Amino acid sequence: MIRNTLEAIQGINIYPIISLAIFFISFTLMLIWVMKADKKFIKKMSEMPLE
To answer: How much is the pTM?
Structure first.
């Protein structure tokens, strides 16, 4: 029943593509940030819960 309802909506097939693009872009940006981040900052942040 739900599948039939979703298939009846015009333009619904674009939403999975948009969500995949948002995920891919955010994952890529986070990966770039981690690679460029200052190692001292990462070490300081990783030690914070232990203080």
So the answer is: 0.62
